[in-house]
Amino acid sequence: MKTDFSPNGRPALIGSLPMDDHPAAINLMDAHTPEIPLWIQLPTFAAEGMMVQFLPGMPGVARRGDKTYINTADDGFDQAMLAFFEDYMAVSEGTLDIADSRFALTDETAPGFSEFLRYLDNRTEPPTAVKGQVTGPFTFATGVVDDAGRAIFYDPQLRDAAVKLIAMKARWQVNQLKKYGVPVIVFLDEPGLAGFGSSAFISVSREEVDNALAEVIDAIHAEGGIAGIHVCANSEWSIVLDSAADITSFDAYSFFDKFILYSDNVKRFVSDGGILAWGVVPTGDGKTIGSETVSSLYDLWEDEVSQMLALGLDRSVLLEKSLITPSCGTGSLSPPDATRVLELTRDLSKKVREET
What we know:
The protein is α/β, with parallel strands linked by helices.
């Protein structure tokens, strides 16, 4: 059994909004998805970019102009790497509190997290669950480069450090959020998995990817959290569905026809208690977003559910183990389009729960 948590068609968001005000972003989120709230990333701020937001704590971080990289040529790099693994072991063995470690998110790069804690502290009613997110280990380690411009994923030592960094930052989020007494969900945002198997990653093995994901998922589970993997495009879905992740978050608006091809994996995942986060609300562009309504998206979702039922899945179980989400984050949209996405997500979830 993957998880006994059942979202029952509730809405949730992926993480980013096109805003420059964290309190306002929290208020917008609360107006649309208060049952499963989350901390908000605002990529309008350079420090909240997908890679740099989670880089602090990694040994050898350096800047050259506007480029951030891992400088393995620095005289102090080996000592920095040793200190990193010493801290990792100290947290793992319980001699260092993760809250006081290099793996904690800070207000400098993740002010949305502190804002989220203030929001939760001031709620009068507890939410159904809370959600955090982290850049997935594959996307992170293929997106961050060393001093030679090579992705750190290809260096076994750097990859090991990167995966452990992401694992601990995910674990730290669970550690901070579980005090509210509700299920804690952490998504691994893995857009990079859309490229797995392509010429860009021809030398990356499936085993290397599986191991990276497993280490982060295990860290989330060790702290008592629920792990999800989000891919906002097509992918080799067996990687996600056959992993230990509790939630598979996929673009049901544009890529359901590709997702359903993995019918045996999907059936096994749901039958084992896995949750499907249906990214059925489009986030691609304003024209597409504006062309859809709650009714049109509900019809699309119903058609996709019927294809799932044809696999032999039970409708009530499927709804019980479903989240309704946008297909991706909304950080690159215009504010009106992003708000429309949130409205559609909230209202579609309501209709799904009322009609089913």
